Amino acid sequence: MNSDHSASYPTKRHRRLRRTPSLRRMVRETHLSPADFIYPLFVQHGQNVRRPIASMPGQFRLSLDQLSAEAKEIMSLSIPAVIVFGIPAEKDAVGLENFADDGIVQRAIRLLKEAEPDLAVITDVCLCEYTDHGHCGLLNPAGEILNDETLDILAKVAISHARAGADIVAPSGMMDGMVQAIRLGLDAHGFQQAPIMSYAVKYASAFYGPFREAADGAPKSGDRRSHQMDTANVQEALREADADVSQGADFLMVKPALAYLDVIARVKDRYPHVPLAAYNVSGEYAMLKAAAANGWLNEQEVVLETLLSIKRAGADLILTYHAKEAARWLT
Ligand code: PBG
């Protein structure tokens, strides 16, 4: 019998590098910072409105008079960007307020840029919050979305946002050709400098539930499966990313984030040189908030772990409702 057991002990010891906080910091591969975050804002008409969104504790619908203070708070937390969603005064078949000079989002952009000129203002470009039927495109009499007719409207919306001072436009409707249509429209109107962040890979997910309450954007009938991706697919995600990169997208986005970390990783592998955003969506936020409110999870720890996992998967930027709280915890 061999009395020298040490010969069979491991020589490679991973735990050596985990022994102290400083050693762990030295070998840490992923870092989270407020600069990674994009904070979503919901804006509506009215005065002095700060209306809580029931399914998203801590998030509010804001009227325009609230935006200056909001912009200052966000900048003071070193968060570089917001994405703006608007709730219009009235909805119609086309969504006229969507591209009106004095539309809710156009006015919000001006106020945010006035309050904090260096805050990057991103705008969501879609029809669903503005149309009375709640769909992401114009409909034919049979109720089907008209792809190419919708592209003309999306370009108009993007141009009106750029004219109001938006830094980046983010088409979210999953229409084929939307990036190209918007790029051509922006360029033709002198906005060659306005980047496009495309919601290139957006799934038909049940995790958008709370957002639809927040933005009042649920389809009145049917669903979004004719344009948003089937949750089972990842090869198709790469085809979507290919299409948007070839049309000139400056950023790609994968949405949602958590149930799609594999998709984030695959898209980043394919386009390591294209900035990639991931949308940590409303339902993902609601889950952690609910568990934390019940005392079932430690909120700070799970939120930071979650956000870190999205970066580790390959995202460069995270759209998240946790942005302000996480930024506070990180500083
Ligand atoms: C569509 C849009 C949606 C979200 C962002 N943009 C809703 C949808 O596609 O149904 C969802 C975001 C979230 O759930 O946090 N304009």
User: How much beta, percentage-wise?
Assistant: 15-25%
How many β-strand stretches? 10
CATH architectural designation: Alpha-Beta Barrel
Q: Judging from the principal axes of the Cα atoms, what is the shape?
A: globular
Q: Would you tell me the structural class of the helices and strands?
A: alpha/beta
Task: Supply the number of helical segments.
Answer: 11
Under CATH, the topology can be stated as TIM Barrel
**How many whole angstroms does the radius of gyration measure?**
22 Å
Compressed to H and E, one letter per element, the order equals HEEEHEHEHEHEHHEHEHHEH
* Cα-to-Cα separation, first versus last residue: 58 Å
How many separate domains? 1
CATH superfamily: Aldolase class I
What ions, cofactors and ligands are bound? ligand PBG
Compute the average pLDDT: 95
Biggest β-sheet description: 10 strands, mixed
